[in-house]
Every structure is written in structure tokens, then in C-alpha cells.
Design a protein that fits this description.
Number of helices: 20
Strand content: 5-15%
Structural class: alpha/beta
Amino acid sequence: MAEQKPVKIMETVLRDAHQSLIATRMPTEKMLPIVEKMDKVGYHAVECWGGATFDASLRFLKEDPWDRLRKLRDGFKNTKLQMLFRGQNILGYRPYADDVVDSFVEKSIANGIDIIRIFDCLNDLRNLQEAVNATNKVKKQEGRGHAQVALSYTLGDAYTMEYWTDMAKKIEEMGADSICIKDMAGLLVPYKASELISAMKSVTKLPIQLHTHYTSGVASMTYLKAVEAGVDIIDCAISPFALGTSQPATEVMVETFKGTPYDTGYDQNILAEIADYFRPYRDECLASGLLNPKVMGVDIKTLLYQVPGGMLSNMVSQLKEQNAEDKYYDVLREIPEVRKDLGEPPLVTPSSQIVGTQAVFNVLMGERYKMATKETKAVLRGEYGQTVKPMSQEIIDKVIPGEKRITCRPADLIENEMDKLENEMKEWKQQDEDVLSYALFPQVATDFFKYRQAQQEKVDMGVADTKNGAYPV
């Protein structure tokens, strides 16, 4: 009898699946009715927060993301909740002071998060240490909280097997509880996955989780080989929100391992009911155009351009706004060039947006770096941290001639910010968490706070005479 080693599954439908397919637009009210059913599956965890959900909740859905988390926590009685956390950038797009990171970690766990997946867009471990320390501190005090460090998987000369095993050892030394290989663009092919998992398993005792996207069409096979090689947890999405730029389908992976030593033990009948619940919503998203058929197929060019799903959908909408959809493939060809210029970073938020937007500008302007975004300049200055390879000196000289570059951990240069932030937004503060929403997205959060106040006071902002301060109730 082979040794039983059931593979665990993290369900992504409440975060990455809708982030990848419908630009993170699933509202909380669509989630809550199915929570009780999802809680019965026995998932390793449900990913439901972090990533782009925070920004999208405030900006597009006019929802308080903290409120969403509390409601989900109330509903999931038996299942761990997981979030995605961008290291020193938290959920925003710049590095924050350590006190903001500490506070955010503390409040995330207090509001219901169990597992924090922490990554850095450059795999610069210095940018992850503070979040790991903060999680461990809460764990020590309250017995809750799990720090998972995610390595952004990518291809390139610098990313050898030795690079990955060396990183795994360092992550264990950092005090992380587990490791995730985060393959944003579906670049990890099946036999490579087998090799990678085996190599990492040989140097670390930490559990290893694998996250990939179906963009290039190989993800299910990659999971099969990874599970055989000993991976502990795989990330899947319930079938209506699976495949394309999302994850492999939960039910398919459950069926694949049925009757093998890796059998999950999950009940397909419960999973079928969850799928039945999400299917009409998927149809609604297709009908409204929120779900673009372009992100649902297989794009083998992913393996050539290394473009993650979320980045593809972002790029499509940027080109649409400029009436330049015909430039789609030109931009795809430009992306690897920009990436090389910037030191071959993995393409994951925010580096993917930075490289993608710069590539769009380079193509639309007809001259490379004629206009550089402030984020591109920040990467070149070293404000995001250290890249694995050196950046192009020619581009540095063109974009930031003569400017001083940063070599230390960027956050070492940032003074504590919490008091200052609280002071700036005190008129809107209704809960401590509001300060953190403001810290990450000052303008968007302020707009949301105004909207929230109007709702609470039953003011119709649509007909408010803001100039003269007259608000019809």
C-alpha cells in the first residue's frame, strides 16, 4: 500500500480567480451566500483578500475591504482565510515604513486572516523580512498567523535551480512558516515543476505550496507532476472561474487524484453545488463584457513573453482607452525588452504593471523611453530594491541622468509614517483600519470615506450641490 499523502487545495475564487478574469470586480454580496457551503469542503484555505481586492473594493465597488474580511471571517467557521501581501509595498504601489507594515499585518490577522502570503516583485528578501517578523510577533502573542513567503517564479539566465534552492534555504532562515512558488504567468512547465519541487524539498523542511495560472495551458499537468514530486498544497479555482488567466479547476484536480495516495478526500457533490452557484454569475459577467473571452483561452505566447494574466487584461484595457488595440502584439514584443532594461525582474504586481505600462508608452510614442513613467524611474533608482541582474546603464543615463541610486533596503530610508497619516485623515476616521486604507490609497480612500459618510447620512451625492454645500437628503 503506497503511503497516503493527500494533497491540499487552496481555493482562489474569492480573490485571484476573479482578479485574473474579471479585474477583481466580484462584490462581497456575491460571495456571502456560498460561504457556508465552501466552509464544508475541507479546503486547506480560502484566499479571499489582499492582492488587488483592496484597491478594487474601495475604487470600483465602493465597499470597505475590512468590512468584507470581517463578514467572510464570520461565515467561514472551519476554514483558514488567506491573503496576498506585497511585502514592503503591502497592497499599494510604493514601499511603506515598517510601522505601517507592522500595523497592517496586525490588523489583517485581527480582522480574520490566518495565512499571509508575502511576496516581493523583485524577490528581494530584504523587502519581506519586516512582514514576516510582524506576523511572527502576532503569532507569538496570540497563537494566530502564518507567514508564507512566495517566490515569484520566472525564467531568465539568472534564475537557475541553484538560485531557487538558495532562496528556499534563506526563506527558512528568515523564520517563514511555509514557501510558495508563485507562477503568475503560467511559465512553469510540468517536468520543470517536478525538478524544482524535488530540488527545493531536498533543502528545506517547510511545506511548499504551488500557485500557477492556466494562461499557457500547462497548469493542470504542472500540478500533477508537482504533486508527484511532493508539493504539499496547490492553488485551484472552482470551475466557472477557472482556466484562462485563472487557476486550474478545483473539481478536475480533486478527480485527478481520487483513489491515489494524493486523494484530497473532498466531496464532488459539494463542489458541484459551489460551481452551480458561481455559473450564473460567470454568465452575467460574459454578457456584460466584464469577462472578456480573450482572457479565457490558452495563449502559448505567454511562454514567450512571460506576461501574467492580470497584466494581459490591464494592457488590453490601456490599449482600448487609447484606441490602439491593434498594437497588442507590438506591446507584447516590447515587454521582454523593457524587462531586460530593468534588470530582468519577475513580472508580478507592481513590476508587471510598471514594465507593461512602459512598454505601452514605448510603442505608442514611437520612441523607446521618450516618456518614462515615474514608476519606471523609481525602479531605475533602486526604490523597489535590488534586481537579480544589473539594469541597463544606457537606459539609466537616458531616463534618470546623474541621479543618485539606492543600494540599501529601500524602507530603511523611510521614517515611521503612522502618526502623520492618522493626522492627515483624522476627520474621516471611524475605525483604526481606515488609517491603513488611507495609507495605501490616499485619494481613493478619501473618496470612499466621503461616499460612506453620504450613505450614512442618507445624502444623495448624485444631486448634491457640492459647491454651495447643499445636500438634498
